[in-house]
Structures are given as C-alpha cells and as structure tokens.
C-alpha cells in the first residue's frame, strides 16, 4: 500500500498538535501520559515531535482523555490554516484553545491564572515548547 505524501498544511497541523500535547502535558512524564492513554512512549514522542502528523482518531481521543482536554479544543487548535494564516472556522480558535490549555494546566497544578511557571503567556504555544 502506497501512502500519499502529507501536504505542508497537514505537517504544520501535526506540529501544532504535538506542541499542544507537550504544553498540556506540562511537567508530567511522557511515559505517564502514554501509559494513561494506552500508547507507547515512543508513539507519544513521535506525535509530539510531529513525526506522526495524522494520528488515528482513537489515539487522539485517548490522549485527550489522559490530558483532560476536550476533542473540540484539540480540533480548534489544530484547524487547517488558510493562505492568510487564519484558522478555518475562526481565526481566534487557536488562541482560545491555547488559553484553555493553560487554564486546564492551572487547574491540574492547583495554580491561579498568571502563575504559569514555564508557560509564558503571549508566547505562541509552539514556541513555548522550546523555551
């Protein structure tokens, strides 16, 4: 079976998805989240790195459950960007999804808004993963 090459937009969406997962995982280990989702740590590493840009629905659903994220939030954050850089279905969707990930992380860590530690508000979520 020959698999067609991914488009640039699909690869970029996979990178955004991976960055979102890393952000949501926070200080928890990759092994912990992978085990909770029923995946291998290697699979999660590849998804977070963008090497698996189009994971199966049930993989995404399992990760969402393990991280306490809604599938709607993930879909909005990873929407395909159009030529102008806006997300299909609303340009603010990615920013709103980032805010929801930060808020979910605050709730899990028991911190208040603004006490993000390594999370840096105002820095794009993809860039935060490398800080």
Please give a structural write-up.
The structure is a single chain. Helices cover 56% and strands 0% of the residues. It is mainly alpha-helical and 131 residues long. The chain has one domain: 434 Repressor (Amino-terminal Domain) (Orthogonal Bundle), CATH 1.10.260.40. Helix 1 packs parallel to helix 6 and helix 5 (71-77) crosses helix 6. The longest helix is centred in the N-terminal third of the chain and has 18 residues, at 8-25.
Q: Tell me the fraction of residues in β-strands, as a range.
A: under 5%
SSE string, helix = H, strand = E?
A: HHHHHHH
CA-based shape = globular
- Percent helix, as a range, is 55-70%
Second CATH tier, the architecture: Orthogonal Bundle
How many E strands? 0
How does the major sheet shape up?
none
CATH fold-level assignment: 434 Repressor (Amino-terminal Domain)
Mean pLDDT: 75
- Which consecutive residue ranges, at least 5 long each, have pLDDT under 50? 89-94, 111-131
Rg (CA only): 14 Å
Structural class: mainly alpha
Q: For the record, what CATH class applies?
A: Mainly Alpha
By CATH's scheme, which homologous superfamily applies? lambda repressor-like DNA-binding domains
Give the N-to-C terminal Cα separation. 40 Å
Number of domains: 1
SS summary, helix count:
7
Protein name: XRE family transcriptional regulator (Modular protein)
GO molecular function, one term: DNA binding
InterPro entries: Cro/C1-type_HTH, Lambda_DNA-bd_dom_sf
Organism: Frankia canadensis
